[in-house]
User: Fold this.
Amino acid sequence: MLKVTNLTKEYDSTLAVNNVGFEVMGGEIAILLGPNGAGKSTTIKCITGLLKYHGSIQICGFDNKSLMAKKNFGYVPETPALYDMLTVYEHLEFIAHAYGISDYKEYAEKLLERFEILDKKNKLGKELSKGMQQKVSICCALLLRPKVIFFDEPMVGLDPKAIKELKEVFQELKNDGCSVIISTHIIDSVSEIWDKALIMKKGQILFSKSREEIEHESETLEEIFFRVTED
Assistant:
């Protein structure tokens, strides 16, 4: 489970995130929506432990910067950050050793095969297209078998087959009891898979409802998004 409580982040005199709070339970897929400048990126960086902040962020009951939290947390950034001189497979080996994962080789090859990059396993990071880099980033995050995972614009640069596979992965993670959070600008890309919608504007969560609650509304999620975020 991911639990964010009273999250506040200031840059000098600018309040980027203002008292944000939400929960994503195990077996739940939440989508984080918002226009540019809404505070999504800052919220993501706080959750991943890249920024100092005020408030509380817990992953599976542990402080997000603790070792136990990090062992249970996977992250796919919007822009893949691969090492130029490591091969595709060496990236997975690096993650496995960093997280103390044993017996990972069979699963690593299955992930690479699933995302159709097994034949690229010996290519260097700098030799890959952006789409291929994104696939490697996804495989590295999934290798952990995380209990909480955050995807930031995960479908950008992926081909249709990879997008289909990734959507199946989302459902499998949910079925396994994982807390899944997806940040995206493209509502249609996740329209059939989410359980909870969170809409941010000007550093605050202005809307948080489940799919069941929204189904009783007279508006679609897209209509709600524009109503909430447009001045």
Notes: The CA atoms of residues 51 and 199 lie 21 Å apart. The radius of gyration is 18 Å. The longest strand covers residues 14-24.
